[in-house]
């Protein structure tokens, strides 16, 4: 018991408390040491994976393990990142559908204007010759075209609303992913602080979250709306102006920030 207290004091103050014996490391039976080594080996094999299912294999075997809190934070992060990817794909699909409907609507409106000019001439001739059947035919065709246009207008309106909803879902997913990233970074930082005087092996076992890889500044386009994250040191622009992201930080487009190319987040 005294040795355990001595070890705790050493971890707290960074030096041996005065006793008649040195603060030697804790001694474990072979089975306990082997279990800890097995857990560390499994964790090292999965810690850098971005697949939640792979990280789950560690939790299945060690639900209360040394790195359980980090594993759960990483799983949440990568699940949110997957949702961002899927939301982006859905948004792009909706935008393509909206553009297709708008193009079809413009084509139909142009055709209607051209046809109405021709119909007007035919109607004058039919009225001059008192051709009731021809007049009825022209009226029916005009009614059919009007119904087609009305239907297409409704489809175009619906497509715009769906594209807008998809954009909102993407932004919500992006915000959730940003929050999950911050939570994972905080969890790893707390663990690093907790074990910094305890075990170099545990420090080495802490995962590192990858940051976006910047492009060559010569070809960098600050107005590129398809790029959601701008790393530190690069310029990003929105409809209200531009800003340079401070080094060590990153900007997330669509997360706010006054339409300056993204909201800046710093560790």
**Total strand segments:** 5
Radius of gyration: 32 Å
User: For the report, how would you describe the main beta sheet?
Assistant: 3 strands, antiparallel
Q: Tell me the overall shape.
A: elongated
Number of helices: 6
Assembly of the depicted chains? single chain
What is the strand content? Answer: 5-15%
Helix content: 55-70%
Summarize the structure.
It is built from six helices and five strands; from the N terminus they run ααααααβββββ. With 267 residues, it is mainly α.
Key terms:
267 residues, mainly alpha, three-stranded antiparallel sheet, two-stranded antiparallel ribbon, 6 helices, 5 strands
Walk me through the structure.
By secondary structure, the chain is mainly alpha-helical. The chain has a domain at 211-267. 63% of the residues lie in helices and 6% in strands. It contains 6 helices and 5 strands; from the N terminus they run ααααααβββββ. It has helices spanning 2-13, 30-46, 52-61, 68-128, 132-195, 200-204; strands at 229-231, 235-238, 241-244, 250-252, 263-265. The chain is elongated and about 105 Å long. The two termini are 41 Å apart. Residues 20-28 have low confidence and may be disordered.
Give the SSE map.
Layout: H1 2-13, H2 30-46, H3 52-61, H4 68-128, H5 132-195, H6 200-204, E1 229-231, E2 235-238, E3 241-244, E4 250-252, E5 263-265
Antiparallel strand pairs: 1-4, 2-3, 4-5
Helix pairs in contact: 2-3, 3-4, 4-5
């Amino acid at each position: 018991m005294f040795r355990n207290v001595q070890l705790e004091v050493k971890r707290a103050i960074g030096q041996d408390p005065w006793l008649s014996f040195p603060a030697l490391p804790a001694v474990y039976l072979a089975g306990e040491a082997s279990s800890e080594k097995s857990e560390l080996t499994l964790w090292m094999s999965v810690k850098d994976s971005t697949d939640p299912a792979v990280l789950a294999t560690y939790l299945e075997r060690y639900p209360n393990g040394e790195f359980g809190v980090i594993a759960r934070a990483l799983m949440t992060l990568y699940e949110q990142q997957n949702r961002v990817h899927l939301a982006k794909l859905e948004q792009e699909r909706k935008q393509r559908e909206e553009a297709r409907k708008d193009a079809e609507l413009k084509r139909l409106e142009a055709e209607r204007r051209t046809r109405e000019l021709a119909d007007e001439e035919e109607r004058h001739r039919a009225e001059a010759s008192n051709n009731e059947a021809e007049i009825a035919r022209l009226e029916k065709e005009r009614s059919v075209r009007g119904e087609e246009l009305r239907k297409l207008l409704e489809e175009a309106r619906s497509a715009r609303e769906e594209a807008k909803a998809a954009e909102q879902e993407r932004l919500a997913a992006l915000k959730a992913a940003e929050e999950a990233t911050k939570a994972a970074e905080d969890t790893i930082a707390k663990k690093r602080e907790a074990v910094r005087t305890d075990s170099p092996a545990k420090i080495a076992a802490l995962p590192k979250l990858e940051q976006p890889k910047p492009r060559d500044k010569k070809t960098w386009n600050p107005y590129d709306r398809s790029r959601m994250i701008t790393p530190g040191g690069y310029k990003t622009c929105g409809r209200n102006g531009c800003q340079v992201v401070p080094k060590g930080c990153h900007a997330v487009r669509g997360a706010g920030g006054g339409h300056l190319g993204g909201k800046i987040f710093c560790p």
